[in-house]
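Subject: for your reference before the review

Hello V.,

The reviewers asked for a structural picture of the protein, and I figured it would be easier to keep everything in one thread rather than splitting it across files. Below is the amino acid sequence we used in the manuscript, unchanged from the supplementary table.
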Amino acid sequence: MTPRRKRLPSLGQCAGCLGWGLRVQSPFCSPCHQWRSKRNHPEGQCRRCKRLWRINDEGFCRACVVAVTEYDAAWYFEPAQAAEQPTWTQLAFCLPASVRRPALPTGTYRLQTDGRYHAPGWARAQRPALVVDDKRICPQAVRGQVALFPAPYRLLERHAIAIRGRLQGDLTRLKPLVDEVQAEHRLGRSWRVSAMDAMALALAARDAAGQDLVDAVILDALPHQPAGVTRVLNKAGLLASDLDHAVAVLPHSQRPRSQPQPRSCDHCLSWGRNQVCDACRHWRRKYADQRGRCGRCGAGPLPLQNGRCRDCTRQRLQLGPDTDTGTWRQLRFAGPSLAGGSATRRDLLADRPGVSPPVVLTGQATIFEVERDWRPLAGALLPAPLPPVKALLADFARYTTENRWNQQVHEPMARVLRVAATWLGADTVFREDELRALHRVFGGKGRIRGLVAFLDQREQLVPSPPRRNRDEAFVQRTIAAFPPRISDELGTWVGVLRGVSRSHHRVTDYATMRRYLIYLATPLADWTTRYTTLRQVTEADITATVTAVKGPRAHERAVAVRSLFRALKHATVFLDPTRGLRITRQELLPTTLAPGRPAGLLETSSNPATRLVLALVALHATSGTDLRNLVLSDVLLTRRQLLIRRPHGRHVVHLDDTTADLLHAWLRYRHRRWPRTVNSHLLVTQQTVSATDPVCADYVYRRFDPAGLTLRAVRADRILDEARESEDPVHLVRVFGISITTAMKYIHAAHPHRAGPVPH
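And here is what came back from the structure prediction:
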């Protein structure tokens, strides 16, 4: 069999791209043959050259694809305009594959890492470089013209980018000098870019001032002055040798980052930068349901208070009711000043030359005590503080800085202290009640507890009398609602439970007595309608009362009734109708969590206090009350132990490596965040560092919310896990410090096969 002869390429013109050269597959060159063999290239008329040949999905033949990607990108950016222009195609040589021109796909706009859509690289390469020149930045002035007053210029980094196309000629002449300085000092490419931007700003400021040379003041006000820029300008002869020009340029520290356009507020017409100023925005939220036309100036519809808009209400507070007869409105500045500074209304009032003395003079005696009404100061102008008041405010600012207060917490407290010290004197002893009243007048933002702690340290505070517990108030209010004789008997019961009538009786808190009164609400209401004293209650009444409800409610009512009548029996000559009362209840055994639920518990938070609480509960079954009552003296770092103090005794927790590391991390964070706190508790927050109170119970229990668990469930799961490993209740008592009764409950829950009833 004769071998097939290999076909050699021929020399000629390609029928596809019309190029001249080697044709591998006659009459086509190799690229056009591959283009022709693709299935997604059907027969059709090319959009650009109008030839009938194989076209791609975008309607171009291969020769036109090469032309578009190399020199005719108008068909990509503006195809409609490009179709109206004459079309030509550059013929090419059909060279070997190593140097041939591939027909790349035109592509689409793609999302890049900067968050924007960009054209392909070949299309961007054909775009001419844009001349960047923002005429609003440093407009050129007439050379030699003397200005009436120097206008300040604010030179920012973004301005150099906006005028890069303006001074290309001057910067081109300076490039050899830049190269010379760069070589002398061995500077890098980043310095070159920064130096060119700085010189562009300097030359633009020179032209805006109408000068021939660059003033030294301009160099001092550049946003960044790389080393060597002054040397380059000096070599070029563009640097002024004296300060005769006196070009006004703001220093870098006074240049704002952004300059919004000034405008007038739509409500109060004050001049600022927002459509509605901050004060009017707050007024609109507060009085949104009272819109209408102002009864004084007639403006509207606006939010009103007592028929007046905010501007007229403010003028009435400041100038008195005599302004009601006119309709004029005093225009004001709102927010930062137009000069670019940060002068607010409070700063303008603080710089007033007039100083008002305090109302209460030093050494003035008080004839009688009266509660002050601070409400007129809510919208009044505050006088400038005296030097002693300024010193007191400075001490308070240092105190807040040492305790790491943020600005939102410091400012309301400083305003309350300034007003109180201005009216009462900086050396006076302040009453806590007056500070709280003044705090409510100014909106009640922040917590007054920190200011009270500051004045208490300076011995300038008269603390308020201890407020009555809300549970105590409920108990006394409920007892007072009964008839006199029954009310006296209930008061005797409260005295017995509080240890007043019987010193050896264990004191019961008011929260427990509140629950007892709730359980006894229905029986007491029934007995009040039938009896005049609780002595008339019989055993039948007690039985009927307890059996009227079922389940746990019956047990709760029986406990409350037994507590009431046993206390009255010992306090007065009384027969106890509850003797022999027995109510059984179903004891609920503790339950365990689903497998895998506690996994990853520590990873739910990065807060050091939260991680410590999670570890102590999940690993050592510490209760919420124990966590709140822990103090720093209970932490034995050398022994790696925690001492938990309970009413019935003490329990020592031996820390493992994980809990010890978390405890060290929290103690370091606590000392770094609040180094001067007076609170001795282990767990503290921003609200408790300035006092001696423990954290609230809600703070401890909410540490488990991100994991979807509860403290009690995690603690019970830990004790149950230990009970499965050991059937000895004494072991649970020693490890977790629980009572023997509680330990037996967990043993019965973990090992139901053990005989014996669950202890009550």
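For the response letter, the relevant points are probably these. Residues 189-208 form the longest helix (20 residues). Residues 242-258, 336-355 have pLDDT under 50 and may be disordered.

Happy to draft the paragraph if you're swamped.

O.
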